[in-house]
C-alpha cells in the first residue's frame, strides 16, 4: 500500500508496453487491454481515496515516496498526495477510464492511439503527484508529446496547425517555468532541498533581490511572473487563451475531454501547489491582477461563446469562462474561495467532459458540429424528438455546466462568490454577468438544436447505445451526487486548502 | 664453431640473398615467384642454424607449400605478366607491370637510403650484442607450452583470423551474383 | 659466428623486398616483396632470440608472422582476383577508386 | 404533536422520491408512475393540513416558530470556521403556504390525470410535476436564503422544462429560453444579495438575518464602483430583484405570457399558483430587510406599475390563457404593492386567495380548451373570438369560472375582496401619510377598475352570446361530470368564497360577520416578523428535540402598530372609504364589460379605432419584447458578441498570437541574410577558396598511387631517423 502512488503512476506506463506487445491488427484486444489498464488505475485511485486521512492538513506521510534520482543536482524522485492533488488524481483516473470507452470507435492506427493515451495518463498523474520541482517539470513536458501527436494525427481538418500551436504555446510557457525553477534552485542555495516543492514553500524569497539589466528587482515577483505566465497559458487565462479553441475544435472527442477535463486543471494546480505557496508575497502582491484577469476570463469567455456556431468552440470558450471562476476563487485567498476553486476544478472537469462527450456522441452520427452552418441553415433541429435519452443526458450536462443548484457546478461557484465578495466586491458584481451569459449561450444552443421540427438530416440518427450510456452514467451520477452532497470531495481538500489559506493570510 | 652449421649458414644465406635479389630483378613474374621460393627455403635454412627447427618447418610448410603455390595460382588466374597495358583508363601511358628503369632507379635510391638508415640504427646494437653460445635443443615442446600458456589469447585470435581470412578470401574472390545470372 | 651475418642477410632481404615493392607495378609482384620483408622481420626475431636472450618468445613471434603472412596472402590474393575481375588489370595504378 | 425530522421532511421528500422513482419507471409503467405522483402529493397534503391545524388553530401562538438545522458541509480547517447549514423553519406563514401548495398541487395533479391523459408524454409530465412540487415545498420549508435559492432555481428548471414540454414547436423553445433567462437575471441578483448578506452576517438563515437587523449591524456600506451603498439597501434590492424576475414584475414581466406554451395544468400550478408566488413569499420573508434598507417605496412603485400595466395589456388579448397570464402578472403586482405599503398579512392573504382562484381559472380554461378542437388541424383552440355560448356545453366549468371571476373582481363575499381591498386600503392609508405613495395607490385603483372588466370580457366572450364559430361549437364535447375534471374545479371554486379567510366582509374588519377574533385568523396569525424576539436565539440542531416555547396568543388588535386612538380612527375611515371605492369601481368595470360585450351599447371596435396607437402599443405589450429581444439582444448583444469573437479569433489570435510567427519570420530573414552574406560567403566560402588553393598544391602529392605514398613514408621515416638518431 505504501507504494500505491508508484503503482498509480506506473500502471499506465506498464500498460503502454502491453499495448505495444499486442499485434496492431488486434484492435479489440488493444481496446480491452487499455480499458483494463485504466480501470485498474481508476480502482487504485479509489483505493487511495479510501485510505486517505482526511484530518491531516499536509502531505500524507504514509504515501510519500522519495528516492534520489540525479544526485549531483539534488533531484529526487519524490511523490506525494494531499487534499489538493487527490481530487485531481481521482478526476484523472475517472476521465481516462471513460475516455478509453468513448474512444472505442477510433479506427485510425488504434495501437499508437491507445499507447499515446496511456502515456498521457501516466504523465498527468506524474504532474499531480510530483513533489520534486524538477520531476514536476519533466512530467509537465512529457505530457506535451502525446498531446501533440493525439491532436496532430487523430484531429480534424486543421489538425497540424492546432497541434503545433498548442505545442509551441505551452512550450513557451514551460520555458519560463524552467527559468523560474532554476532561479529558485540557485537562490535557495543549490542544496538537497532546492528542488523540494515542500521545502521551498513558506515565503522564503520575499526579500531577495536580483539585478537584471542593471536594475534591482524583487526576486519573488520576477519568478512569480514567469510562473504565472507558464501556468496561465495552461489554464488558459486571457490573453493566453487562443490556443484552446483551436486545440479543442481539432482534437478528437476523447482528447478534448482530457484537455478540458484534466489538462486545464494542471495550470490552476500549478498555482495551488507551486506559485502560491512558494512565493506567497508575490501572489498577494498580484492578487488584484489575478482577480481582474479572472473576471475578464469569465465575461470574455462567455460573450465569445455566445457568438460561436461550432459546438466544440462554444464549449471551449465556456471552459475559458469557467476557469475564470477558478482564478477568481484563487485570487480571493479565503477559505471559501480556495475551496470553491478546487471544487470548481473538479466539477468543471466532470461537467465539461460531459459536454464534450455529448458533442462527440452527436458527431459520430452527424459528422459535423455546426449549430448553424456557415450558410445560415440549421445544423441540427428537433433532436429532442429524435434522440430522447441523448436529450436528457444533454440537459443534465448542460445544467451542470451552467451551475444549476442540485448539480455540482453550483456549489463551487457559490463558494467562489462567497470567498471573493469581501475581497473584491465590484468584481463579484461583474462576474455575475458571466453567470448570466453562461446560462444564455448554453440554453440558446440547446434551443436551436433540440427544439422545433425534425430537420431531414437529423432523421436518420439513432439514440445513444449501451456503450455511450455506460460512459455517461458515471459522470451523471458524480455530477448529481456532488451537487446534492459535496462533502465527500470537500472533506478531503479542506484541511490542505486551509493550511494554504493560512500561509497566504500571513502575507496579506 | 660448428663447421656443419657454418656450411649450412653459408648455403642458406646465399640461397636467401640470391633468391631475394633475383626476385627484385627478374623479368618474368613466374620466375620471380620461383626465386622467392628459393629465398624462403634459404630463410628456413637460416632458422635451422639458429636452432629454431619448428619455425623452419613451419616456414617450409606454410610458405613454400602454401603461400607460394597460392601466388602461382593467382598469377595464372590473372594472366601473369603477359598482360601489357600500356595505357591506363585515362589514356595516359602507364609503367610496364614489371617496372622500368625509372622505377628501378627509384627503388635503388630508396634502398640506398634504407641501407644508410639501417647502418645508422644497427651500429649501436651490433656492437653491444654479446655472443652467447647455446646448446642445440628441441624447441617444439617449449613453443607448444608457450602457445597454450602465455600466448593463448594470441593463439586463439590467430585461429579466428585464419578462419576469417579463409571465409573472407572465399567471399571476396567469388564472382558477382548478378554476373552469374547474366551469364 | 655472431648475430651480424644474420642481420646482414635479413637486411638484404628487407631491402630487396622494398625494391620490389617500389619498382614493380604488378600487384602480385608487390605481394612477393611484402613476403620478403616479412621474412626479413621473422628472421631477425629468431636471430635476436638466439643471441640476445634465451627466451622462446621470438620463435612464437616468428610463427605468428608466418601465420599472418599466410592469411594476408590469402586475402590479398583474393582481393587481387576480385580486382582483376572488375578492372581486367592488375596494374597498381589502376587501383584508384574504392568503388567499382 | 412533536415535530421532528421524520414528521416535517417527508412533506418535501415524498414528491422528490416520487420524482426519482418515476424518472426511471415512467416509460414502462406510466400508470403506476402517475399514481405514485398523485399519492406522493396527497400524503404531504394530509401532513400539511395537520401542521396547519396545529399552528393556526391549536396551541401555538402567533409568533411561535420551529427552527432546526443540520450541517450540509463543513469547510472548517484550523482557525477558519465556515459551515454551510441547512434547516427547516416553520411558522404560521409557512404552515399556510404549505397547505396552499400541497392542496393546489394535489388538485392540479388530479386534473392533470384528465387533461394530459391522451398526451404521448403523459408520464413525463408527472415526473416534472413531482420535482416541481418537491422544490416548492422545499422552498417553503427552508430556513435560509441559500436553500431558498437552490429550490428557487430548481423550480426555474422545472418551469423551463414544462414550458418547453411540446418541444416540436419552435415557439416552445423560444418561450422556455426566454422564461429561464429572464428569471435568471433576477436570480443572479438574488445570489449576489445572498452572498452579500452571508459574508457580512456569516449566515443567511432567516433567524440570523432578523437578528442582525434587530442589532442593526447591516449598516456597513458596500463599496461598489467607488460608491458606498448601505448593505441592507444593497442586499434588499438584490433580493427584491429575484422577486421581480420570479414574480414577473416590471420590468422583467415579459416571460410569463410566453410561458403559456406549457400544458395548461402546469400553467395553473407553476405560472399562476405557486412558483410565481414564491417571489412574493421571499419578499415577505425578507420584509424586515427591505424595510431596513428603505426600499418599500420602490417596491410599491414596481407593484403599482405592474398591476396597472399588465391589466391594460390584458384588455386586448384574445387568447384565453394570455388573458389569464396578464391577470396573473397584475395580481402579483398587487401582492408586491401590498409589501410596498406594509400590508404584510394582506399580501400573503392575496397570495393564497389568488393561488386558489387563479389555479381554478387556469384549470377551467384548460377544460374549455380541451373541449374545443379545430376540426381541420385537430389542434386545441384557445382563441376567444372563435368561442362563445359555451355556457350550455360546459356548465360545471362555467360555474367554477364564474365564481373565480367574481372573486378576482373583488365582489364582496368572495376572497379577493378581502385580500386585495385590504391592500388597496393600506395603500390609501400610506398615501394619506406620505405623498410619495399617492401614485402607487392610484395605479392600484385603476387596476382594480380594469380587472373586472377584462375578466368579465373573457367570461362574456367565452360563455355568453351566440357561438361565433359554429363548426367548432358543434364539435365541442358536452361536459359530463367526472371526478378528475370537474371535482378539482368545484373544490377550488368553493374556496374562492371570502369567509374561509376572513370573518368580516372586508379586510378591515368593518362589517364583521363573525365578530370573534378567531375567525380573523389570517390577520391574527400572520404578522410582520417581530425582530426583537430573535435577539440571542440560536437554532436547535435537528438531532436534538427542540425546546418548545409557548407564547400567549397575541389577540387580534386592529390598532396594533398605530399609536393613538385618533389615528386609529383616521385609518378606519380611510379603510372604509377604500373598500367602498373599490367595490364601486369593480361594479363599474363589470357594467362596462356587460354593456360592451352583451348589450353591445359600446362597440369595442370604436375604442380600438379611436385609440389606435394605444391599441397597437398594448397588442405589442408596450414594446418590451421588442426592446429586449430585437434591440437589446439582436441589435446590441449579438453584434457585440460577434465582434468580440471576431476580434478574438480573427484579430487577436491571427495577428497578436500568430503574428509572432511574422516577427520571427522577419528575424529569420535577417538572420538568413547575415548567414548568407557574412557567414557563408565570406567566412565559409572564403575558407573554401583558401582550401582550394592548397588543394592545387596538395593534390599533386595526393595522386592515389600507393607506391608513391610508400615512398614518401619511407623517406620521411628515413630522414627522421637520420636527422634525430632516436635512441633505441
Account of the 3D structure:
Chain A has 508 residues and is mainly alpha-helical. Chain A has a domain of 223 residues. Chain A is 71% helix and 4% strand. Chain A is built from 21 helices and four strands. In chain A, the strands form two sheets. A two-stranded antiparallel ribbon of chain A has the order 1-2. A two-stranded antiparallel sheet of chain A has the order 3-4. The longest helix of chain A is centred in the C-terminal third of the chain and has 32 residues. Chain A is globular and about 70 Å long. With 183 residues, chain B is mainly alpha-helical. Chain B folds into two domains: 140 residues, NADH-ubiquinone/plastoquinone oxidoreductase chain 6, subunit NuoJ (Four Helix Bundle (Hemerythrin (Met), subunit A)); 33 residues, no CATH class. Helices cover 73% and strands 0% of the residues of chain B. Chain B has seven helices and no strands. The N and C termini of chain B lie far apart (66 Å). Chain C has three helices and no strands.
Number of helices of chain C: 3
Estimate nothing, just give the exact number of structural domains of chain C: 1
Assembly annotation: heterotetramer
Low-confidence stretches of chain C are: none
Q: Tally the helices of chain D.
A: 28
| Biggest β-sheet description of chain D | 3 strands, mixed
Number of E strands of chain C: 0
How far is it from the N-terminal to the C-terminal residue of chain C, by CA?
54 Å
Rg for CA atoms of chain D = 38 Å
Rg of chain C is: 17 Å
Q: What is the count of β-strands of chain D?
A: 5
Offer a few descriptive terms.
heterotetramer, A: 508 residues, mainly alpha, two-stranded antiparallel sheet, 4 strands, 71% helix, C: 100 residues, Helix Hairpins, 3 helices, 76% helix
Give the SSE map:
The complex is a heterotetramer of chains A (508), B (183), C (100) and D (728).
Chain B: H1 3-25, H2 29-49, H3 53-77, H4 101-128, H5 140-148, H6 152-173, H7 177-182
Helix pairs in contact in B: 1-2, 2-3
Chain C: H1 4-23, H2 27-51, H3 57-87
Chain D: H1 5-8, H2 10-25, H3 30-58, E1 66-74, E2 83-90, H4 92-115, H5 122-141, H6 145-163, H7 170-201, H8 206-214, E3 221-224, E4 227-230, H9 231-246, H10 255-258, H11 264-273, H12 275-285, H13 287-293, H14 296-314, H15 320-340, H16 344-371, H17 395-409, H18 415-433, H19 438-463, H20 470-475, H21 486-494, H22 521-525, E5 540-541, H23 565-597, H24 604-610, H25 612-619, H26 624-657, H27 659-701, H28 706-724
Parallel strand pairs in D: 1-5
Antiparallel strand pairs in D: 1-2, 3-4
Helix pairs in contact in D: 2-3, 2-5, 3-4, 3-5, 4-5, 4-11, 4-16, 4-21, 5-6, 6-7, 6-11, 7-9, 9-12, 9-13, 11-16, 12-15, 12-16, 14-15, 14-19, 15-16, 15-18, 15-19, 16-17, 16-18, 16-21, 17-19, 17-21, 18-19, 18-23, 19-23
Amino acid at each position: 500500500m505504501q507504494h500505491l502512488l508508484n503503482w498509480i503512476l506506473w500502471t499506465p506506463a506498464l500498460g503502454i508496453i502491453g499495448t505495444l506487445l499486442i499485434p496492431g491488427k488486434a484492435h479489440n484486444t488493444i481496446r480491452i487491454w487499455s480499458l483494463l489498464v485504466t480501470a485498474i488505475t481508476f480502482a487504485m485511485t479509489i483505493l487511495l481515496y479510501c485510505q486517505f486521512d482526511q484530518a491531516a492538513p499536509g502531505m500524507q506521510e504514509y504515501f510519500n515516496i522519495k528516492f534520489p534520482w540525479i544526485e549531483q543536482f539534488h533531484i529526487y524522485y519524490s511523490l506525494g498526495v494531499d487534499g489538493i492533488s487527490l481530487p485531481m488524481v481521482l478526476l484523472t483516473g475517472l476521465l481516462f477510464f471513460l475516455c478509453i470507452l468513448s474512444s472505442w470507435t477510433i479506427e485510425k492506427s488504434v495501437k499508437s492511439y491507445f499507447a499515446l493515451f496511456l502515456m498521457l495518463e501516466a504523465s498527468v498523474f506524474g504532474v499531480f503527484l510530483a513533489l520534486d520541482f524538477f520531476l514536476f517539470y519533466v512530467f509537465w513536458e512529457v505530457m506535451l508529446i502525446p498531446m501533440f501527436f493525439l491532436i496532430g494525427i487523430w484531429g480534424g481538418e486543421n489538425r497540424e496547425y492546432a497541434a503545433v500551436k498548442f505545442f509551441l504555446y505551452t512550450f513557451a510557457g514551460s520555458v519560463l517555468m524552467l527559468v523560474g525553477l532554476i532561479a529558485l534552485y540557485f537562490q535557495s542555495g543549490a542544496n538537497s532541498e532546492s528542488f523540494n516543492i515542500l521545502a521551498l514553500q513558506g515565503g522564503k524569497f520575499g526579500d531577495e533581490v536580483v539585478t537584471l539589466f542593471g536594475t534591482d528587482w524583487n526576486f519573488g515577483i520576477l519568478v512569480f511572473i514567469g510562473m504565472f505566465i507558464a501556468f496561465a497559458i495552461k489554464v488558459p487565462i486571457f490573453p493566453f487563451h487562443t490556443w484552446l479553441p483551436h486545440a479543442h475544435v481539432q482534437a478528437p472527442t476523447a482528447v478534448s475531454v482530457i484537455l478540458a477535463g484534466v489538462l486545464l486543471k494542471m495550470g490552476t494546480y500549478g498555482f495551488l501547489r507551486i506559485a502560491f505557496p512558494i512565493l506567497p508575497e508575490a501572489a498577494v502582491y498580484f492578487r488584484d491582477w489575478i482577480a481582474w484577469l479572472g473576471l475578464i476570463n469569465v465575461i470574455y469567455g462567455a460573450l465569445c461563446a455566445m457568438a460561436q456556431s461550432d459546438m466544440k468552440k462554444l464549449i471551449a470558450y465556456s471552459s475559458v469562462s469557467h476557469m475564470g471562476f477558478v482564478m477568481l476563487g484563487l485570487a480571493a485567498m479565503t477559505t471559501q474561495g480556495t475551496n470553491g476553486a478546487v471544487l470548481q476544478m473538479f466539477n468543471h472537469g466532470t461537467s465539461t467532459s460531459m459536454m464534450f462527450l455529448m458533442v462527440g456522441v452527436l458527431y459520430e452520427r452527424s459528422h459535423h458540429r455546426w449549430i448553424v452552418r456557415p450558410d445560415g441553415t440549421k445544423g441540427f433541429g428537433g433532436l429532442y424528438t429524435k434522440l430522447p435519452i441523448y436529450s436528457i443526458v444533454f440537459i443534465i450536462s448542460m445544467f451542470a455546466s451552467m451551475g444549476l443548484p442540485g448539480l455540482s457546478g453550483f456549489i463551487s461557484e457559490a463558494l467562489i462568490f462567497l470567498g471573493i465578495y469581501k475581497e473584491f466586491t465590484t468584481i463579484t458584481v461583474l462576474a455575475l454577468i458571466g453567470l448570466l451569459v453562461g446560462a444564455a449561450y448554453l440554453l440558446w444552443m440547446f434551443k436551436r438544436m433540440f427544439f422545433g421540427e425534425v430537420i431531414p438530416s437529423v432523421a436518420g440518427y439513432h439514440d445513444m447505445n449501451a456503450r455511450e450510456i455506460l460512459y455517461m452514467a458515471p459522470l451523471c451520477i458524480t455530477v448529481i451526487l456532488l451537487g446534492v452532497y459535496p462533502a465527500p470531495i470537500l472533506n478531503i481538500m479542506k484541511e490542505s486548502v486551509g493550511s494554504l489559506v493560512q500561509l497566504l493570510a500571513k502575507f496579506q | 664453431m660448428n663447421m656443419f652449421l657454418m656450411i649450412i649458414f653459408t648455403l642458406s644465406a646465399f640461397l636467401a640473398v640470391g633468391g631475394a635479389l633475383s626476385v627484385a630483378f627478374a623479368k618474368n613474374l613466374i620466375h620471380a615467384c620461383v626465386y622467392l621460393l628459393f629465398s624462403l627455403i634459404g630463410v628456413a635454412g637460416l632458422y635451422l642454424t639458429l636452432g629454431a627447427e619448428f619455425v623452419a618447418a613451419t616456414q617450409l610448410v606454410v610458405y613454400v607449400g602454401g603461400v607460394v603455390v597460392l601466388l602461382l595460382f593467382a598469377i595464372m588466374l590473372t594472366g601473369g605478366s603477359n598482360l601489357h597495358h600500356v595505357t591506363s583508363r585515362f589514356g595516359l601511358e602507364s609503367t610496364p607491370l614489371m617496372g622500368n628503369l625509372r622505377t628501378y632507379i627509384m627503388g635503388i635510391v630508396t634502398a640506398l637510403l634504407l641501407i644508410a638508415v639501417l647502418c645508422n640504427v644497427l651500429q649501436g646494437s651490433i656492437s653491444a650484442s654479446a655472443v652467447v653460445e647455446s646448446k642445440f635443443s628441441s624447441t617444439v615442446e617449449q613453443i607448444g607450452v608457450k602457445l597454450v600458456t602465455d600466448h593463448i589469447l594470441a593463439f586463439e585470435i590467430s585461429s579466428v583470423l585464419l578462419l576469417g581470412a579463409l571465409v573472407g578470401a572465399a567471399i571476396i574472390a567469388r564472382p558477382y551474383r548478378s554476373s552469374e545470372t547474366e551469364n | 659466428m655472431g648475430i651480424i651475418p644474420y642481420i646482414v642477410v635479413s637486411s638484404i632481404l628487407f631491402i630487396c623486398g622494398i625494391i620490389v615493392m617500389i619498382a614493380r607495378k604488378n600487384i602480385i609482384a608487390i605481394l612477393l616483396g611484402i613476403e620478403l620483408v616479412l621474412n626479413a622481420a621473422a628472421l631477425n626475431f629468431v636471430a635476436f632470440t638466439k643471441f640476445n636472450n634465451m627466451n622462446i618468445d621470438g620463435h612464437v613471434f616468428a610463427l605468428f608472422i608466418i601465420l599472418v603472412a599466410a592469411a594476408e596472402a590469402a586475402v590479398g590474393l583474393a582481393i587481387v582476383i576480385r580486382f582483376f575481375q572488375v578492372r581486367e588489370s592488375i596494374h597498381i595504378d589502376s587501383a584508384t577508386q574504392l568503388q567499382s | 404533536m412533536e415535530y421532528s425530522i421524520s414528521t416535517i421532511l417527508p412533506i418535501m421528500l415524498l414528491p422528490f422520491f416520487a420524482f426519482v422513482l418515476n424518472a426511471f419507471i415512467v416509460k414502462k409503467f406510466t400508470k403506476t408512475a402517475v399514481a405514485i405522483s398523485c399519492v406522493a402529493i396527497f400524503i404531504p397534503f394530509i401532513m400539511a393540513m395537520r401542521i396547519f391545524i396545529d399552528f393556526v388553530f391549536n396551541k401555538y401562538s402567533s409568533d411561535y416558530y420551529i427552527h432546526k438545522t443540520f450541517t450540509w458541509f463543513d469547510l472548517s480547517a484550523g482557525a477558519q470556521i465556515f459551515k454551510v447549514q441547512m434547516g427547516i423553519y416553520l411558522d404560521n406563514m409557512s404552515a399556510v403556504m404549505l397547505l396552499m401548495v400541497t392542496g393546489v398541487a394535489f388538485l392540479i395533479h388530479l386534473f392533470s390525470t384528465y387533461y394530459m391523459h391522451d398526451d404521448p408524454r403523459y408520464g413525463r409530465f408527472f415526473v416534472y410535476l413531482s420535482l416541481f412540487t418537491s422544490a416548492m415545498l422545499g422552498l417553503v420549508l427552508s430556513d435560509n436564503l441559500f436553500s431558498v435559492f437552490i429550490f428557487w432555481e430548481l423550480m426555474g428548471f422545472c418551469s423551463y422544462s414544462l414550458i418547453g414540454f411540446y418541444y416540436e414547436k419552435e415557439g416552445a423553445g423560444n418561450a422556455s429560453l426566454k422564461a429561464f433567462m429572464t428569471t435568471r437575471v433576477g436570480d443572479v441578483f438574488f445570489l449576489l444579495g445572498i452572498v452579500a448578506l452571508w459574508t457580512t452576517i456569516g449566515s443567511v438563515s432567516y433567524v440570523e438575518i432578523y437578528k442582525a437587523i434587530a442589532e442593526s449591524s447591516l449598516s456597513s456600506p458596500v463599496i461598489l464602483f467607488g460608491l458606498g451603498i448601505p448593505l441592507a439597501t444593497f442586499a434588499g434590492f438584490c433580493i427584491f430583484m429575484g422577486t421581480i424576475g420570479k414574480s414577473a414584475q416590471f420590468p422583467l414581466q415579459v416571460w410569463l405570457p410566453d410561458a403559456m406554451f406549457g400544458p395548461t395544468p402546469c400553467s395553473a400550478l407553476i405560472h399562476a399558483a405557486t412558483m410565481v408566488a414564491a417571489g412574493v413569499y421571499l419578499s415577505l420573508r425578507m420584509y424586515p430587510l427591505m424595510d431596513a434598507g428603505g426600499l418599500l417605496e420602490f417596491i410599491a412603485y414596481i407593484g403599482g406599475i405592474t398591476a396597472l400595466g399588465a391589466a391594460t395589456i390584458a384588455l386586448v388579448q384574445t387568447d384565453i390563457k394570455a388573458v389569464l397570464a396578464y391577470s396573473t402578472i397584475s395580481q402579483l403586482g398587487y401582492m408586491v404593492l401590498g409589501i410596498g405599503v406594509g400590508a404584510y398579512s394582506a399580501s400573503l392573504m392575496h397570495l393564497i386567495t389568488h393561488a386558489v382562484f387563479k389555479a381554478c381559472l387556469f384549470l377551467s380554461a384548460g377544460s374549455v380548451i380541451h373541449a374545443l378542437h379545430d376540426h381541420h388541424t385537430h389542434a386545441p383552440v384557445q382563441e376567444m373570438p372563435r368561442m362563445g355560448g359555451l355556457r350550455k356545453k360546459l356548465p360545471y366549468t362555467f360555474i367554477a369560472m364564474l365564481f373565480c371571476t367574481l372573486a378576482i373582481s373583488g365582489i364582496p363575499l368572495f376572497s379577493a375582496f378581502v385580500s386585495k381591498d385590504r391592500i388597496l386600503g393600506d395603500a390609501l392609508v400610506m398615501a394619506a401619510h406620505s405623498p410619495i405613495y399617492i401614485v402607487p395607490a392610484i395605479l392600484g385603483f385603476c387596476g382594480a377598475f380594469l380587472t373586472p372588466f377584462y375578466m368579465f370580457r373573457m367570461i362574456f366572450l367565452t360563455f355568453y352570446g351566440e357561438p361565433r364559430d359554429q363548426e367548432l361549437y358543434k364539435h365541442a364535447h358536452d361536459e359530463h361530470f367526472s371526478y378528475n375534471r370537474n371535482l378539482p374545479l368545484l373544490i377550488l371554486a368553493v374556496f374562492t368564497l371570502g369567509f374561509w379567510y376572513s370573518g368580516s366582509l372586508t379586510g378591515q374588519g368593518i362589517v364583521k360577520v363573525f365578530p370573534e377574533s378567531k375567525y380573523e385568523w389570517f390577520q391574527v396569525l400572520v404578522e410582520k416578523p417581530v425582530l426583537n424576539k430573535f435577539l440571542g436565539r440560536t437554532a436547535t440542531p435537528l438531532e436534538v428535540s427542540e425546546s418548545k416555547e409557548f407564547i400567549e396568543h397575541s389577540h387580534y388588535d386592529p390598532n396594533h402598530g398605530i399609536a393613538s386612538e385618533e389615528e386609529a380612527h383616521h385609518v378606519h375611515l380611510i379603510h372604509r372609504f377604500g373598500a367602498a371605492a373599490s367595490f364601486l369601481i369593480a361594479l363599474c368595470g363589470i357594467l362596462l364589460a356587460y354593456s360592451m360585450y352583451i348589450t353591445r351599447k359600446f362597440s369595442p371596435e370604436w375604442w380600438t379605432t379611436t385609440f389606435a396607437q394605444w391599441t397597437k402599443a398594448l397588442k405589442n405589450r408596450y414594446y418590451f419584447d421588442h426592446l429586449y429581444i430585437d434591440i437589446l439582444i439582436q441589435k446590441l448583444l449579438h453584434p457585440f458578441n460577434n465582434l468580440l469573437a471576431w476580434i478574438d479569433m480573427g484579430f487577436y489570435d491571427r495577428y497578436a498570437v500568430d503574428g509572432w510567427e511574422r516577427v520571427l519570420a522577419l528575424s529569420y530573414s535577417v538572420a538568413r541574410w547575415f548567414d548568407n552574406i557574412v557567414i557563408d560567403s565570406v567566412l565559409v566560402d572564403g575558407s573554401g577558396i583558401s582550401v582550394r588553393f592548397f588543394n592545387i598544391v596538395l593534390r599533386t602529392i595526393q595522386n592515389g598511387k600507393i607506391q608513391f605514398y610508400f615512398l614518401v613514408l619511407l623517406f620521411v621515416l628515413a630522414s627522421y631517423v637520420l636527422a634525430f638518431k632516436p635512441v633505441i
